Amino acid sequence: MTRGTEPDPASPDGGPPLDYRRRPCTECPWRRDADLGKFTDSDFAKLEATNGIPGTEAPPSAAAMSCHLDQPDTAHPLRLCAGWLAVIGYHHLAIRLHVIANRLPPAALTADADWPALYDDLAEMKRHRPNRSQDLSTMRSSASQA
Q1: Contact partners, residue 42, CB within 8 Å, separation at least 6
Q2: Domain limits of the chain?
Q3: What is the SS3 assignment for 138?
Q4: Concatenated DSSP letters for 115-129?
Q5: What is the pLDDT of residue 58?
Q6: Rounded Cα–Cα distance for residues 127 and 71 (Å)
Q7: Where is this region: Disordered (predicted)?
Q8: CA–CA separation, 98 vs 7, rounded Å?
Q9: Coil vs helix vs strand at 27
Q10: What is the pLDDT of residues 114-140, one digit of tens each?
Q11: What is the DSSP string of 44-110?
């Protein structure tokens, strides 16, 4: 992660603050108004690998979710996703440890009042995802008729 843009204090062990988005991007999958059809099965598998819920928190070794719009070697490589932090962050043990170590402010784990509505958890997001197998069979059927 790159150094944050806010004046967050360095952690007690000298580690730099983590960089994170300050609000969900326009295509954030955690937004209720996002087009979840844009996200592949592979994308959802990555979300599943970062997921934690009350009583079944993601272990410290679990991956964290960066914004899907950020790319390596750009102005903002791999900032933590604001939507993911607000929904899942508290249930991810590595993120809690970063908060304790002052590498991430506690406010990063809370949606601001002016944010768009977010899904409550990954299970809810998956329930709202379009049926991709139906989409694929429709595509195959259309292709065979051409």
Answers
A1: none
A2: 36-145
A3: helix
A4: SPPB-SSHHHHHHTS
A5: 95
A6: 28
A7: 1-24
A8: 16
A9: coil
A10: 999 999 999 999 999 987 654 444 434
A11: HHHHHHH--BTTBPBPTTSPPPBPTT--TTSSSTTPBPHHHHHHTGGGBHHHHHHHHTTSS-GGGGS
